[in-house]
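Observation: inputs received (chain + zinc ion).
Thought: call the complex predictor directly.
Action: predict_structure
Action Input:
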Amino acid sequence: MNIIKQAAGGGLEQVREEDLEEINRWSRRTLKAEEVYVFSLRLCDNEVDREEERFEAETLEELAPLFLGKSGIFDHQWSAQGQTARIYRTEVVRQPEELTRAGDGLCWLKGYAYMLRTPGTEELIARIEGGILREVSVGCAVERVVCSVCGAPRGECRHVPGERYDGRLCYVSLRGGSDAFEWSFVAVPAQREAGVLKTAGLRRALADRPEELERLRELEQEAADGRRWREELRREVVRLGLLADRNAPAALLERIAGGLDTRELEALRDTYQARVEERFPLPVQLSYERGAAGGGGDGAFII
Ligand SMILES: [Zn+2]
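Observation:
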């Protein structure tokens, strides 16, 4: 950890005048350049994800303004200290030369976030710089969830997401971006590429220090393993929470689960598990029900 703290000092981004103007639209008091740390994130893209779902390019355009001013939360230990970052600018980046699995040009929603630089945020910034906190989970709502082949609401046609029909990949299309919730740094996002975009990294700062680079790689690996397990737990907690209480807002459950550490997640999972068993004496399978409303209606999607 010390290595990360030491090395990150040189890698911080310069805050430009235009950034500061936009940041000050959201801050409670007028901030100076040296008081803030800025970084960019990949919030979501139009790539078909592990759940065979994707945002359409238009959906990303609709979501872009909705993310302005939204706070991001970090792991439990940071959130407990009130450490948050806030998005002050968004843009849809188009990379037509790079194709998605659906065969069209890649585009993604880029967010710029700032946080206050205080002695308390030093290590957090080092983690962002070092790529240890680099995975982002965002919550947002879409109006329609439809089959990409025929446009029918999800689950109401015979097309199977992930299969090809006349050479075209079938996927679940998320359309009509209608709301954006808070975002958080978590492990292994559903979207393959989501994460912090490092513009000046620790790796470069350590280029001529092979032993420390090796240690950094080890730390990254350890962090990745831990995050993966926590993410599995987090998903399980949200799934069980929705089963235990049909009225629980998915976004809220997601937020709660995102702020807990592994032990707390395990405890909450057991609590929900017991409640679900009370409600449903027989084993149940949760079909497609990640959103608050699910199906083809209004739904909150945690990506
Ligand atoms: Zn269909």
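Thought: report the result.
Final Answer: The mean pLDDT is 76. The longest strand covers residues 84-99.
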